[in-house]
Amino acid sequence: MKKHLRFAIAFAALGCGTAAYAQDDFSAQLKARQGQFRIMAINLGILGGMAQGKMDYDAEAAQAAADTLVAVSNIQQGPMWPEGSDNMSIDGTRAQPTIWDQNEDFLSKWSDFGTAAQAMQAAASGGVDALGPVMGQIGGTCKACHDTHRAPAN
Amino acid sequence: MRRGLIVGGLCLAAIVAAGLFVTRAVPVDASAFDGLEGDAANGEKVFTAAGCASCHAAPDATGEAKVILAGGQRFDSDFGTFIAPNISPHPEAGIGSWSLGEFASAVQKGVSPDGQHYYPAFPYASYIHMTDQDVVDLWAFWQTLPEDATPSQPQEVNFPFSIRRSVGVWKYLYLTDDWVMQDVPKPELERGRYLVEALAHCGECHTPRDALGGLDRSQWLAGAANPTGPGQIPSLTPDDLGWGPTDIVYYLETGFTPDFDSAGGHMVSVIENFAKLPASDREAVAAYLKALP
Description:
heterodimer; A: Four Helix Bundle (Hemerythrin (Met), subunit A); 6 helices; elongated; B: mainly alpha; Cytochrome Bc1 Complex, Chain D, domain 2; 3-stranded antiparallel β-sheet
C-alpha cells in the first residue's frame, strides 16, 4: 500500500514537472540559439582579426575557426525556435515574429550562411589575403537575416 | 465694449496672420542654382551617402532593383505611419516632371512643388545642409534612374499632424541650418560632419526626440528609442560606444562590430551604402564620431 502511494506521488510529481516544462519561458532554447551565435562571433573574431592584421595569420587556427563555422551551420535549427519564443511573446530575445511568419525566408538565409561558411572552409588555410573577401560574404549573410528578423538591442 | 471687441478681433487676426506667416512653406531661391552644372558621377555618390534608395526603393527590393525608387516602404511612428512615395523619374507616378528648383525645395526645405510641407520623416532637416552643388549633381544622377509607374500611397498620419500646415510649426521650432558640431579644424572632420549631419542623416535615428518629434540636439547622437519598433538605437558618443576609429571604419565597411556581432535593421542598408563610398569617407565619419563630446 505504502509502495502504491509512493508511486502515486512520484507520478503526480512527474505530471507537475511536465506541465511546468510545457509552459516554460523557453530559456533552454534561448540559451542554445544565442550560444550558437556566440560561437560564430568568437570564430569570426579569429578570422576577422587575422584579416584586419590585428593578429598574426595562422593557417591552422584559421582552418579550425572556419571548420567550426561550418559545424554551427549544420546544427538543426527547428527545435531551437519553438512557436511563441519571439520578442513580442517573451523577454530575453530579439527574435522578431517574422522568423515564424516568413519561416522559409529565415531558413533560406540560414542556409546562405552555411554556403558562405563553406567558402571560408575552402579558403581559410590559403593565406591571409583570401580571408577578407570571404569575411565580407559571411557578413553579408549575417546582415541579410538581421535586417528583418532581429530587433535592435534594448 | 465694442472697442474691446474690435481690438480683440484685430489681435486675433494678427495672431492668425503671424501664425500663417510663420507656418508658410518657403521654397528655395531657384536662382541660387543658376550656372551650376550637374555632375551625375558625383551625384551617384551623394545618392549613396544620402541613402535615398534605402527608404524609397520598393519593400524587399535588393541589389540592382534598389535604384527603382517606386516607394511603398512603411515607417511606423508615434504620429502615424509614413509611406515612402514614388520618387522615380516617372513623369506622373514619380517626380520626372519636376524642375531643379522644385527638387531642391523638396530636398533642402521639405517643400513640395504645390507649396505644401513634407513630413519630416523625409530627413530634410539634415539635407538642409546639403550643398547646392551636391543637389544639382544629385538631380543630374536622378535623370539616369529607371522610371516606375507604381502610384504613391496616401500617408496614414494621425490628427492633428494630418493637417500639413502643422508641419510649419514643427519647422519653426526645429528646422535650422546651424551645424551641431561648430568647430571642424581639419578637412577630414569637416567631411565627417557633412556625412554624419547632412547626407547620411545619422542624427535622425541616433538622437532622441522630444514629444513633438524634434531632435534634442543637446543629446546629439546619444542614442534613442527605436522609432519603428521595440529596442534602442545605440549611442555613438565615444564614451558610450567605446570603439576605436578602425573599429568604426571596419563596421561601416563590413557590418561587423568589434566583437563580431553584426549590424541589423535599418543599419544594414546604411552599411550597404557606406561600403560603396571611398574609404576616406568611412574614416571621416570615424574622425567625426571620435570628436563628439
